[in-house]
Design brief:
By secondary structure, the protein is of the alpha+beta class. It folds into two domains: 124 residues, no CATH class; 106 residues, Umud Fragment, subunit A (Ribbon), CATH 2.10.109.10. The chain contains eight helices and seven strands; from the N terminus they run H-H-H-H-H-H-H-E-E-E-E-E-E-H-E. It has a seven-stranded antiparallel β-sheet. The longest helix has 56 residues. The C terminus is likely disordered.
């Protein structure tokens, strides 16, 4: 029997419903794909941000090792060893939003700063130089004599020159460039009072500090830092000395500093 003109074809309805369902499924699938893409992009952005912060911290640590003053000069130094523009290198150590160098620049950073790529990227906790990373397990023997002989010679000289002193590690950049963070100080703890201008280990305001003590007529006892970023402190009289709990713990008689000659680029940094 033929269907009436106004009758609804059941097969047509089912086909339309199936098409609508398929369209909705495709739309939902596309939406979920976009959501996953956004989530993946957000995840990569978070990873890049974390890596940028970690790399910046280790670059700054290597710059301190090289005794490069903080601020503008650090970006200039990075530009010199990589040949990149100052604006680019400054972004790598930006305080708020550091950026990542490209691979070619990263290679130049590793070479110029003698830094192990794995350490710079945070894959190693122990700081290593690039030479250490590339060197064989056992270092080559010195051409003249045993490798340990020079160490014994240095130790013997230090023992003679710093007789009666105790070794202490310097913490902080207060006395740079004369005494750097991590340098080994030799302190004569038999000196417990001011004995002329010089470097002393002192206690002041509850802190242990290394300071240059200088008596200035009409001013008082001046506690100074070699690093000009830190202001002088003036102790005018005995009352103030007592109030600030100032005490001489010992006199700094010497320091051992290990200085490395850092590699630079033959090209001049863009200014």
């Amino acid at each position: 029997m033929a269907a009436d003109d106004g009758a609804v074809d059941g097969h047509e309805i089912v086909a339309k419903l199936g098409g609508m369902a398929k369209s909705e499924m495709n739309k939902t699938s596309r939406t979920k794909s976009r959501e996953l893409e956004v989530q993946a992009a957000d995840g990569r952005a978070d990873e890049d941000a974390a890596l940028s912060v970690s790399l910046k911290a280790r670059l700054l640590e290597r710059l301190r090792d090289a005794r490069i003053p903080e601020g503008h000069k650090q970006a200039v130094h990075l530009a010199e060893i990589t040949g990149r523009a100052y604006q680019t290198t400054r972004r790598w150590i930006d305080c708020t939003a550091p950026g990542l160098p490209d691979l070619a620049s990263f290679k130049l950073l590793c070479t110029g700063m003698d830094g192990d790529p794995s350490w710079l990227l945070g894959l190693l906790g122990e700081k290593r130089s690039l030479r250490q990373a590339l060197a064989p397990t056992e270092p080559a023997a010195a051409p003249d004599g045993e490798p340990e002989e020079w160490v014994q010679d240095v130790a013997s000289e230090v023992r003679d020159q710093m007789y009666g002193c105790c070794a202490r590690r310097m913490h902080g950049d207060d006395m740079e460039p004369d005494i750097a963070d991590g340098d080994t100080l030799f302190v004569d703890f038999a000196v417990t009072e001011f004995r002329g201008n010089g470097n002393y280990l002192i206690a002041c305001d509850g802190r242990e500090l290394v300071r240059t003590l200088e008596y200035r007529l009409g001013t008082g006892l001046v506690l100074g830092c070699a690093n000009t970023r830190y202001p002088e402190t003036v102790i005018k009289d005995a009352a103030e000395s007592t109030r600030r709990q100032l005490k001489v713990l010992g006199r700094v008689e010497g320091v051992i500093q290990v200085r490395k000659f850092w590699r630079g680029s033959a090209r001049q940094a863009p200014r």
